[in-house]
């Protein structure tokens, strides 16, 4: 076999020399002629140097460079010639083994907070055992990781971002130096269908178009704008600048008034959870407040399904001793009692508010949530963070701070006929929701009717 390969290579070299017998005098002309030879031998799998020609095989592509050290135009191949990257290989990894995929990502990688290894692993162990990772590898190194969970919607099985409604501002884990084409992404979902033919649809919702200067490659596929936007603040490392954009005097006046209320009530402090007991106490209070609020509004409690609360307890507890925690809890404590709790996450120069809750007690009129936001935004201006995102959803208190409105996007990949039909239904529903939410009068009426019909006093 080796003798045959060597003979084949020798024949290829001879043919290449005949085709390039009169090379151009310019280096660029030489590169052009060599490129023409290159396309003739894409099936050759042999690496050697014969008679000044370097023939190098890299799995699929064969690169041929004409090397003539006596020529004044000689350059090493890597100086002026762009080498093709190795083809990407799709891998579908099910269960807890999927969490190990992130270990191979390099320092140039990034992801949304909900697309990290810890999020995926904790979600798999607490909330949904049917989780998997759809990944692209360059040789043996992962360069693209899409963490998914499979849920059932009636007769349809849908793969969504692991975390369901709690996964927001989504962005797949990827290497920033790697380029991804539509065909490579299509091949990934083809492989997913081969491994999991029971999945009808991949529905990727509330995605960011950009994160940390990198574009979301999934938006090369057919996508539509989600009904929910993400509102954010440009921090500029200057709190006075942030305040000056929207009603600075009113904000400072309200903050002084609230400060007096809290001091008169027994004193206050802002607490950042640094122990497991603090995360447990903060989350326990938040879950109670959240359940009460959504019940009154007639909204489904997304924290109620089995395992969700345990997931958040583990996620935040695991970060308490981290030097730079990706997930963090903060609370406003007045007279020794928590009055407001917010959960936040970090990714590439941005912080995202994942949730906030307040106690419905005698100090609720002092706006503890607004007070906690004021303090947290001010603290964030003293860091290297560039963007403070309020996450998904449009609320007046967010508008009072923000100077950036970031659209989010949905991508759906139908794997079966049943999946295509369900994708059509979801797209129609999303368009209806978007129209309702864009009309302030209609949206206010819908919330009022929902509260009356489904709310609990």
TrEMBL record:
The record, for InterPro entries, names: Acyl_CoA_acyltransferase, BioF2-like_GNAT_dom
Compositional bias segments (type: Polar residues): 23-33
Q: Establish whether keyword DNA damage is in the entry.
A: no
SUPFAM superfamilies per UniProt: Acyl-CoA N-acyltransferases (Nat) (SSF55729)
Superkingdom of origin organism = Bacteria
Q: Where is this region: Disordered?
A: 1-33
Q: What's this protein's name? A: GNAT family N-acetyltransferase
């Amino acid at each position: 076999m080796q003798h045959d390969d060597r003979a084949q290579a020798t024949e290829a070299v001879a043919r290449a020399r005949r085709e390039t017998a009169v090379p151009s005098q310019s280096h660029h002309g030489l590169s052009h002629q060599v490129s023409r030879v290159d396309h003739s031998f894409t099936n050759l799998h042999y690496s050697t140097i014969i008679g000044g020609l370097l023939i190098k095989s890299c799995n699929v592509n064969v690169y041929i460079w004409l090397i003539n050290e006596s020529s004044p135009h000689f350059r090493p191949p890597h100086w002026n010639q762009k080498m093709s990257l190795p083809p990407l290989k799709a891998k579908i990894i099910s269960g807890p083994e999927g969490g190990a995929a992130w270990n191979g990502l390099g320092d140039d990688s990034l992801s949304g907070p909900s697309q990290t290894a810890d999020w995926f692993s904790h979600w798999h162990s607490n909330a949904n055992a049917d989780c998997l990772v759809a990944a692209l590898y360059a040789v043996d190194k992962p360069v693209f990781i899409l963490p998914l969970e499979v849920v059932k919607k009636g007769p349809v099985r849908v793969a969504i971002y692991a975390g369901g409604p709690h996964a927001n501002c989504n962005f797949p884990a990827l290497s920033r130096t790697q380029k991804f084409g539509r065909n490579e992404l299509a091949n990934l979902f083809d492989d997913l269908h081969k491994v999991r033919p029971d999945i009808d649809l991949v529905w990727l919702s509330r995605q960011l178009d950009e994160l940390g200067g990198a574009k979301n490659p999934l938006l090369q596929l057919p996508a539509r704008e989600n009904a929910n936007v993400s509102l954010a603040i440009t921090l500029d490392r200057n709190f006075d600048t942030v305040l000056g954009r929207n009603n600075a005097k009113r904000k400072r006046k309200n903050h002084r008034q609230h400060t007096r209320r809290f001091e008169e009530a027994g004193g206050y402090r802002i607490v950042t959870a640094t122990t497991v007991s603090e995360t447990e106490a903060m989350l326990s209070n938040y879950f109670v407040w959240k359940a009460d609020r959504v019940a009154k509004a007639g909204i489904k409690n997304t924290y109620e399904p089995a395992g969700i609360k345990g997931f958040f307890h583990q996620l935040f507890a695991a970060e308490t001793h981290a030097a730079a925690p990706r997930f963090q809890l903060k609370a406003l404590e007045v007279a020794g009692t928590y009055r407001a709790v917010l959960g936040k996450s970090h990714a590439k120069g941005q912080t995202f508010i994942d949730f906030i809750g307040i106690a419905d007690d005698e100090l609720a009129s002092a706006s503890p949530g607004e007070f906690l936001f004021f303090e947290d935004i001010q603290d964030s201006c003293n860091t290297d963070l560039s963007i403070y995102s309020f996450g998904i959803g449009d609320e007046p208190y967010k508008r009072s701070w923000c100077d950036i409105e970031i659209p989010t996007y949905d991508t759906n990949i139908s794997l079966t006929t049943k999946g295509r039909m369900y994708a059509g239904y979801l797209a129609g529903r999303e368009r209806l929701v978007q129209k309702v939410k864009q009309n302030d009068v209609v949206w206010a009426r819908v919330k009022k009717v929902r509260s009356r019909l489904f709310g609990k006093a």
